[in-house]
Design brief:
Number of strands: 2
Strand order of the largest sheet: 1-2
Shape: elongated
Largest sheet: 2 strands, antiparallel
Order of helices and strands: EHHEH
Helix content: 25-40%
Strand content: 5-15%
Number of helices: 3
Length: 79
């Protein structure tokens, strides 16, 4: 078994617990990484881009989540 498998849009979305359309939107806007295997030898409407699991896990570990402070941001002192 490959320790760093390639994942399709559906597999990535399932892994991240988001919708496939959310993942596609993140990729299209440049907020998510480009595919490791873009499948460019197929016509545009038949492509099945794939990402390495390590690429997805690194991106997910470092991304900022909406409404949550970044890990490097110190907590606000309520005093």
């Amino acid at each position: 078994m490959d320790p760093d498998p390639l994942m399709t849009v559906l597999q990535v979305a399932d892994h991240l617990r988001i919708t496939p359309s959310s993942w596609r939107a993140n990729v299209a806007s440049g907020d998510a990484p480009a595919a490791d295997d873009p499948d460019t030898d197929q016509p545009a409407n038949r492509r099945r881009p794939r990402w390495r699991r390590s690429t997805i896990e690194e991106w997910n570990r470092t991304r900022r989540r909406a409404g949550r402070p970044h890990q490097d941001t110190p907590p606000v002192d309520p005093a």
